[in-house]
Design brief:
Helix content: 25-40%
Number of strands: 11
Order of helices and strands: HEHEHEHEHEHEEEHEHEHEHH
Distance between the termini: 38 Å
Structural class: alpha/beta
Number of helices: 11
Radius of gyration: 19 Å
Largest sheet: 6 strands, parallel
């Protein structure tokens, strides 16, 4: 996803000198091409996230569209006060970009595991939270973010994520992107964990259980029409590589309550049972309840209950 983001942003920035990319001293090899081709639109601020975010807000206040890029927790939790005060409350045109969502940097340990960021960022005023599922969605959402001036949070995976979409979907603000059409239930997901959601639906399909599967890239603006249909169809399972509290599943429950939609909902999210664990992304997903069996079991429990 990060490569799709950088390449798309570079293409757009070549057409618009008001697009600025700032990094906190990382992205070497990934951001080199941007720095080389557009040195006047690139800043390496060093390891100083709080100053970096204040700088981004100041530049944005002059009419620029500023993208701030860093690893997961660093451009979010480490400089939360600056995002709240300088970006959101001042309504400055800054996109906070985190790379390595969830357990993508698993071997680096809990300091690099991003499992609270959706909850924290979606609580901020004026901030739109977007979570693409694969490189295709990352490309389309980057183009969307270039056009809008809204303060935003873009949550990316790391690299080499599998393509979820067979062809480019029609990206529309607040709409879900359906991958599989089903009849008796729905799996809604955010991020690259969608490959696991699809595998779960395929296993259930072998037992004659037909589920729809859809990506929900616009976490701050959920698709009312699709959710109403999903609620009438059967159980809804939300899947996210994030902690259970305050994440995508919570956003769906809040939305259902606000819109007075009755639904049978199950949340599959990281249990975070052992915060000191270190390992591959796949290993940490399995250890924290983010595998095919967890989704299949959740659906069967809801359907039977």
């Amino acid at each position: 996803m990060r490569d799709a983001f950088v390449q798309t942003l570079l293409e757009e920035a070549k057409k618009d000198k008001d697009i600025i990319l700032i990094t906190g001293d990382l992205g070497f090899g990934v951001l080199d091409v941007f720095q080389r081709e557009l040195p006047g639109q690139f800043i390496n601020s060093g390891v100083n996230e709080q100053a970096l975010m204040g700088m981004a807000a100041g530049i944005a206040s002059t009419g620029k569209r500023v993208f701030v890029y860093s690893i997961a927790n660093f451009p979010t939790l480490r400089c939360l006060e600056q995002i709240r005060n300088d970006v959101c409350l001042m309504n400055n045109s800054v996109v906070v970009v985190s790379v390595g969502a969830g357990y993508a940097y698993g071997a680096q340990g809990y300091t690099h595991h991003a499992l609270e960021d959706i909850a924290v960022m979606r609580a901020l005023p004026n901030l739109e939270v977007l979570v693409p599922a694969d490189p295709i969605e990352a490309k389309l959402i980057t183009k969307y973010l270039v056009k809008t001036k809204t303060p935003s949070y873009l949550r990316l995976g790391k690299s080499n994520e599998l393509m979820i979409h067979g062809r480019e979907p029609l990206l529309a603000h607040g709409k879900f992107n359906e991958i599989i059409e089903g009849e008796i239930g729905t799996i809604l997901f955010v991020g690259s964990i969608g490959t696991t959601a699809i595998k779960a639906a395929e296993i259930l399909h072998l037992d004659g259980l037909s589920l729809s599967v859809a990506s929900a890239p616009f976490v701050s603006s959920l698709d009312k029409e699709y959710i109403e249909i999903a609620a009438s169809r059967g159980p809804i399972i939300t899947v996210e590589e994030h902690g259970r509290r305050g994440g995508f599943g919570s956003a769906v429950l809040e939305f259902l309550n606000k819109e007075k939609i009755r639904a049978n909902v199950g949340i599959v999210a990281a249990t975070q049972k052992n915060l000191s664990q270190i390992g591959s992304q796949e290993f940490l997903r399995e250890e924290n309840g983010l595998d095919v069996n967890a989704i299949v079991s959740m659906f069967r429990t809801l359907r039977e209950g």
